[in-house]
Amino acid sequence: MKESIIRALSGIVYIALLIIATLYSPISFTILFGFFLVIATLEFCRLINLDKTIPLIMAGIGFLAFGYFINNEVLNNILLNLAAIFVSITLLIALFKKNTPPHSDKTGKFVILAGYVVIPFLLIIKLPFLNGGYNPNIIIGMFILMWTNDTFAYIVGKTIGKHKLYERISPKKTIEGFLGGLLFTIIAGYIISRFYNFLSPTSWMITAIILVIFGSLGDLVESKFKRNAGVKDSGAIMPGHGGILDRLDSIIFAIPFLFLYYQIINYVS
Fold first, then answer.
1. Left if phi > 0, otherwise alpha if psi is -120 to 50, otherwise beta: which for 132?
2. Where on the phi/psi map is residue 49: left (φ > 0), alpha (ψ -120 to 50), or beta?
3. What is the mean pLDDT of residues 168-195?
4. From CA 126, how far away is CA 101, in angstroms rounded?
5. CA pair distance 228, 187, nearest whole angstrom
6. For the segment 79-118, what is each residue's pLDDT rounded down to a tens digit?
7. Is pTM beyond 0.85 here?
8. What is each CA distance from 179 to 44, 197, 211, in whole angstroms?
9. CA 37 to CA 245: how far, in whole Å?
10. HSE value, Cβ hemisphere, 13 Å, CA-based, for 200
């Protein structure tokens, strides 16, 4: 009972902090996700056994260059997107190859760190500024969709889940849970479009699909990193929930694909 209370309180504090910082101002939002970036970098270095000094410098320079000094020049965005997607594809290939580590030499670890952790956090920071002003509701909507998927994937999977999604990496996840989460998240996307109409209902539902598909893959990718490292959680900053990577693994894997989609619809509109 005590562990459940601690877990619930920790989750409430996390959600409240995220929503308040995002809605309060662009500065508080940027600082919060800059902090998340630093913690996630430290956690990832622990998972892949990489000295923390250079990664922290990489994260700091990336944050200052692309986070604090917001620059949504199209070419910069495309290059960041392509770099992150290249690393994501590399990780997916490693995920579905048995006994294949997602990283090998030291250089490879730095590349994975940049494309899997640093750039995705920078894209999250850049996302609400994509159309020139600051639109916090795109971030709030994205997290609502992700939380909807997590909730209903768990409920449906627990209730009727029989067929394992990818048992070797994540034995508790089921195909039924994945499909249930996808369905309810698409519905949530349509509902959100009634309140946040800066995107069409179709775009919100496509956002839901991108987040669920790539977010689920991202959860599996992080599970493989943890399995290779022999740990249950990426960190312990959130009692009962683990680390920042444990909370944001789905978002950071999905964001390069979602950011690219938003760039495309901005270009054609």
1. left
2. left
3. 92
4. 31
5. 36
6. 889 999 999 999 999 888 766 665 667 788 999 999 999 9
7. yes
8. 29, 26, 13
9. 9
10. 7
